[in-house]
Amino acid sequence: MPASVLIGTTTGLVDATAGRAVAHVGHDVVAVAGPWAVVNGHEVVAADGRRAPPIEAARVACLAQLGGGEVLAGTAGAHVYRAGDGTVERLVSFDDAEGRDRWYTPWGGPPAVRAIAVSPAGTVLANVHVGGILRSDDGCATWRATVDIDLDVHQVVAGDGPALAASAAGLAESRDDGRTWRVVDEGLESTYARAVAVSGGTVLLSASDGPMGERAALYRRPLTGGRPFERCRAGLPEWFEGNVDTFWLDGLPDGGAAFVSPGGQVYGSADEGATWELLADAIAGPHCLSLAGA
After folding, report:
1. pTM (2 decimals)?
2. DSSP character string of the chain
3. CA-to-CA distance for 140 and 158, rounded, in angstroms?
4. Is the CB of residue 136 less than 8 Å from the CB of residue 124?
5. Per-residue confidence at 277, pLDDT binned at 50, 70, 90?
6. What does the buried/exposed string (b/e) look like for 205-227 if buried means 16 or more CB atoms within 10 Å of the residue's CB?
């Protein structure tokens, strides 16, 4: 079981098992990446006091750690910033990314950078909603479009195995560092996926019938071997009333995993999502969940 389950909420960074805010008390914590957090939508701060100048031009939606104590911040309006202690820089290269004129949202508003992942090779994968996944392997100097933007990707992650993305058509996976992708949906009862994580050797994916979250559930599948998804059942309700959203699910290499449900219940697993137990109830205003091992 994860030793620490931290949840960014509207009232601070909450320790789920203790049921209280442990950092940024009274402030809106919308994203977490390692020691860094996005506070009140515009401030990128670290647990040790490091702080970037506020990103006032747009609301920050996600973070990803870079080397050298820096992070990448994705924002509303589909922009990317590089930030560190006392520094922040908008990446003009991302503003010039190919295909940008085709990005959109279903409701007609401006698109946003919804998730960013950095692979072990240093490749940056930026998920635009709705605009597909942009890839940079040259330190963010240039960006190339990869998947069809209408795949409607909601989260991208990259670790020691394949890069993975939760999309409206199911799981998209890449085994060539984000250059090409294929969609996997075998075993899913619904394909509209909002969150993805890796726990040990298992992919965990939240999926439902659509944006309103009908028949929402958590699914699991081995990273290798080509087996279909199976619904996670042991210790969980049959269905959730709403989507397990982007960043509400996380996993660890040791097989630990946790997620927060639409109702604010926090569930944890020690066996790669095979079985689950309730860790906390009624966490209010969740934005993101982050795990630390023992």
Report:
1. 0.97
2. --SEEEEEETTEEEETTTTEEEESTTS-EEEEETTEEEETTTEEEETTS-BPPP-TTS-EEEEEE-STT-EEEEEBTTEEEEEETTEEEE-HHHHT-TTGGG---TTSS--EEEEEEE-TT--EEEEEETTEEEEESSTTS--EE-S-GGG-EEEEE--SS-EEEEETTEEEEESSTTSS-EEE-TT-S--EEEEEEEETTEEEEEEESSTT-TTBEEEEEESSS-PPPEE--BTS-S-BSS---TTSEEE-TTS-EEEE-TTS-EEEESSTTSB-EEEES---SEEEEEEE--
3. 16
4. yes
5. very high
6. bbbbeeeebeebbbbbbebeeee
How does pLDDT run across 121-168, given as a tens digit for each residue? Answer: 999 999 999 999 999 999 999 999 999 999 999 999 999 999 999 999
Which among 286, 209, 208 is positioned nearest to 14, based on CA atoms?
Answer: 286
- pLDDT tens-place string over residues 174-202: 999 999 999 999 999 999 999 999 999 99
Mean pLDDT (the chain) is: 96
The residue among 175, 128, 134, 177 whose CA lies nearest residue 152 is 128
Q: What is the dihedral of CA 20, 24, 25, 30, to 10 degrees?
A: -80
Which residue, 90, 45, 91, 38, is CA-closest to 69? 45
To 5 degrees, how large is the angle CA 130–CA 81–CA 163? Answer: 55
CB atoms under 10 Å from CB of 96, counted, come to 10
For the record, the structure tokens of 277 come out as 């137990």
Residues whose CB falls within 8 Å of the CB of residue 212, separated by 6 or more in sequence, listed in order: 242
